[in-house]
Specification:
The structure holds 2 protein chains of 2 kinds. Chain A is built from 1 helix and 10 strands; from the N terminus they run αββββββββββ. Chain A is mostly beta strands. A 5-stranded antiparallel beta sheet of chain A has the order 1-2-3-8-7, with no helix packed on it. In chain A, strands 4, 5, 6, 9 and 10 form a 5-stranded antiparallel beta sheet that branches. By secondary structure, chain B is of the alpha+beta class. Classes of the chains: A mainly beta, B alpha+beta.
């Protein structure tokens, strides 16, 4: 029975789709998330990327939820903390159809570039979007590379 | 005379907009998922915590799986506190239904009753706007706290405002137990909206 289970597990693993690569953008039915890097970053210097959360369809960005970016170990960029709040200093785009609510949030993500070569920024954006009936809490991994500035 | 009569009728029919801290907690009688009747005033002499509940709400899920509601009720029960969840979701709305609530209770090891308030009468009498929305009633039946379970509006204790986690309900119950006034008697609840019929 144990052998059968092991064979089945191997067979299922072989048929499993490859893990989806994490990129600078991700989307679901109710949202889009983008990690927007600066064009380049001077090695070892401070720079700023942006995290943009956009609600889709009947959803808006939940202003009460503490939107954040949790740094992934794949990052070669340095951050001031492992988990960075994104609410303060964020620009919010008002919804056209839902007065008083924001349909997009664009938050600065300060980091320090790697001492040499390309800088990798990777992490998980936590946010919430709501429609009239329900709220969703999402945790979406994103990653992007920043080229070293030549000047 | 007719106006007076109408006013009197409205006063009887309409529940208070929201229960006030420092005033008697609105009494209610509700059945739990097994049909057992619970009357708030029957618990006089004990501290009672009311937790507005919706098993489909992601904040409730977070609070019960990672956050402040994981084992708080169990701990408080050992100290003699009565803990009651209340679901004011209307039929057809998220989180309504005996089976869905029983499944959540089992999954999250909730050893306390979930009361069914599908008309929303009790929820509205308390001014419950969110799930979770917490209310603490003292032994003499006075409402002494209403608001959030804690100050981390992600539901999982991961983003406390000001950087330090404050468990408001624990704190209120602790203050009552020590015979002190509740330090923080009212906070803004966070979470999903209560799924009332209207």
């Amino acid at each position: 029975m144990t052998l059968l289970a092991a064979i089945l597990a191997i067979a299922l693993a072989a048929d499993a789709p490859p893990t989806k690569a994490v990129g600078p953008r991700a989307e679901g039915e109710a949202y889009q998330v983008a990690l927007v890097p600066p064009p380049s970053a001077k090695p070892g210097a401070a720079a700023t990327a942006r995290v943009v959360v956009t609600a889709r369809g009947p959803y808006h960005v939940n202003r009460d939820y503490p939107t954040s970016f949790r740094v992934d170990k794949a990052s070669t960029a340095s951050f001031t903390a492992e988990k960075l709040p994104l609410g303060e200093g964020a620009e919010r785009t008002p919804c056209k159809d839902f007065p008083g609510e924001a349909c997009a949030l664009s938050a600065p993500l300060p980091f320090r570039a790697a001492a040499s070569g390309e800088t990798r920024i990777a992490g998980v954006v936590a946010f919430s979007v709501c429609n009239a009936d329900r709220c969703l809490i999402e945790k979406v991994p994103v990653a992007v590379s920043v080229a070293p500035a030549t000047k | 005379m007719r106006t007076l009569l109408l006013t009197a009728l409205l006063a009887v029919a309409a529940p208070a907009l929201a229960a006030d801290v420092g005033k008697p907690a609105p009494d209610f009688t509700l059945k739990d998922l097994d049909g057992k009747v619970h009357k708030l005033s029957d618990y006089k002499g004990k501290t009672v915590v009311l937790e507005w509940f919706n098993p489909g709400c992601p904040y409730v899920v977070a609070a019960h799986t990672k956050g402040s509601l994981v084992d708080l009720a169990q701990k408080q029960a050992k100290a003699g506190v009565v803990w009651l969840a209340v679901n004011s979701g209307a039929p057809g709305k998220q989180g309504h239904g005996i089976e869905a609530n029983k499944a959540a209770a089992k999954s999250w090891s909730m050893a306390y009753p979930i009361l069914v308030d599908e008309t929303g009468t009790v929820g509205k009498a308390y001014g419950a706007t969110n799930t979770p929305h917490m209310f603490v009633v003292s032994k003499d039946g006075t409402l002494v706290y209403k608001g959030a379970i804690d100050n981390s509006p992600d539901g999982e204790r991961g983003s406390p405002q000001g950087g330090v986690l404050v468990e408001y309900v624990s704190s209120a119950v602790g203050d009552l137990g020590a015979g002190k006034p509740v330090r923080t008697a009212e906070t803004k609840a966070y979470g999903c909206g209560v799924k009332y019929a209207n």
